[in-house]
Amino acid sequence: MSERDSEGGLTRRSLLKTAAAGAVASTAGCGSILSTSSSSSLTRGTETAYGNCWQCHKACGMEVTLNEAGEATELHGIDGHPRGSAGEGTKGTLCPKGLSQLEKAYSPERIKQPHVRKDGELQKVDWDEAISYTADRLEDFADEYGPESLIEFHGWGTSGVFSTLFRNLYGCPNHVPHPTPTCFGSMAVTGTLMGLGGGNIRWIDYPNTEYILVWGRDPLESFAGQWEAKQLLKARERGAKIVTIDPVYTETAKKSDVWLPIEPRTDGALALAMANVIIEEGLYDEEFVEEYTHGFETYKEAVADKTPEWAAEKTGLAEHDGLGAETIREIAIGFAEAAPAAGITSWTGLGQSADHQKGAQNVVALTALVGNIDRPGGQRWHTSPPLSDPFEVGCEEELPNNAADNPCYLTDKESGYASMTGKPVQNRVPEMVDNGDVRGMVYYYRNPVTDGAAQEWLGTDEREGALEKMDLVVGIDAFWSETARKADVVLPEASQLEKPMFESGGYGAYNEHPWITGSKAAIEPQWNSKPGFEIVSELGREMGYEEYFPWEDKTEFINDQLEAVDLTLEELEQEHDTYYVFDDEQHRNPYEKWKGGGFAQGAEEFWFDLDKKLEGMYGKLSEQVGAEITTGPQWVEPGTIGDELTEEYPLEMLDTRTVEFSHGGDQALSLPLEQLAESYGLEHEDYRGNYLVIHPDQAGERDIEHGDMVTIASEHGEAELMAAVTEGIHPGAVSVEPYGFGRGSIQPDGDGANNMLLNSPEQIDPVSGEIDRHIAVEVSPGGDD
Ligand SMILES: Nc1nc2c(c(=O)[nH]1)N[C@H]1C(S)=C(S)[C@@H](COP(=O)(O)OP(=O)(O)OC[C@H]3O[C@@H](n4cnc5c(=O)[nH]c(N)nc54)[C@H](O)[C@@H]3O)O[C@H]1N2
Ligand SMILES: Nc1nc2c(c(=O)[nH]1)N[C@H]1C(S)=C(S)[C@@H](COP(=O)(O)OP(=O)(O)OC[C@H]3O[C@@H](n4cnc5c(=O)[nH]c(N)nc54)[C@H](O)[C@@H]3O)O[C@H]1N2
Ligand code: SF4
Ligand SMILES: [Mo]
Question: Could you tell me which residue ranges the 4Fe-4S Mo/W bis-MGD-type domain spans (predicted)?
Answer without folding.
Answer: 43-109
